[in-house]
Structure formats: structure tokens, C-alpha cells
Specification:
The protein is an alpha+beta fold and 126 residues long. Helices cover 17% and strands 14% of the residues. A two-stranded antiparallel sheet has the order 1-2. A two-stranded antiparallel sheet has the order 3-4. Strand 3 (109-110) and strand 4 form a beta hairpin. The radius of gyration is 21 Å and the shape is elongated. A zinc finger (C3H1-type) spans 35-63, 73-101.
Length: 126
């Protein structure tokens, strides 16, 4: 089942439009297909063939790649595993960022003990 999702793109599209259309933005209807064909198929890249053929959820070539519509907060916060000094099991697929800034290090105090827990101060230093 495919659900429709409406996306508003200010100033998007081409051709002549009325001022109302330009002001309101262009409405595009896209299908919410999750991550379908947003990454290249590893098997296809390695061997040039894929046992799933056209049913493969991954793209077989650059031409099949689809854009990913991500949440506006995607990778805006640091990964808890990385903050705790560990290795994130999600790797590049993690929804949180793995690079720590000086600000991250400044705002988080480390408590090294069982489970490697961190605490975020209620009043960050200024």
C-alpha cells in the first residue's frame, strides 16, 4: 500500500505561473515509499547481477536512485553511543551525527562506570 504525502516546494517547478502560485509554492505529490531504491545494491555493484532482479529494494545503477526525504532534525544531535565513547552499531545509517564538536564535548560530562552513561547538564555554561 502506498500512502500519498504532500510536499510544498517554494518557488519550485518551471514554466509560467501566476503570482499566487509562486507565493503559495508549488505543490508536489509524492508517494511515501520509505527508503525504496535510495541506495545502490551491493550485490549488483559487486557482480553486475542481483538475485532479486526488479523486485530488489535497492537501486541497480545511478539512474534508479531516488531522493531521500529526511526529517528536518536528521543528524542534528550527537549519537548517544558516540557520546558514551562507544561504537554505534548503525554506522552510516544512524539517524544521529557521529562527529563531536567542541560544543558537544563542553556540554556533556562523562560518567565512566557500568554502561558508560552520560549526563547532559540542565544549565549549559555560557
Amino acid at each position: 500500500m502506498q500512502m500519498q504525502q504532500r510536499v510544498y516546494v517554494p518557488g519550485g517547478g518551471g514554466g509560467k505561473r501566476s503570482e499566487e502560485e509562486i507565493a503559495a509554492g508549488m505543490e508536489l505529490e509524492v508517494f511515501n515509499q520509505g527508503m525504496w531504491k535510495t541506495e545502490l545494491c551491493n550485490k549488483w555493484q559487486e557482480t553486475g547481477t542481483c538475485p532479486y532482479g526488479n523486485n530488489c529494494q535497492f537501486a541497480h545503477g545511478i539512474g534508479e536512485l531516488r531522493p531521500v526525504i529526511r526529517h528536518p532534525r536528521y543528524k542534528t544531535q550527537a549519537c548517544r553511543m558516540v557520546l558514551a565513547g562507544g561504537v554505534c552499531p548503525y554506522g552510516h545509517r544512524c539517524h544521529f551525527r557521529h562527529s563531536l564538536t567542541d560544543q558537544d564535548r563542553k556540554y556533556f560530562k562523562w560518567v565512566w562506570g557500568p554502561g558508560m552513561v552520560y549526563e547532559q547538564p540542565t544549565n549549559p555554561p555560557t
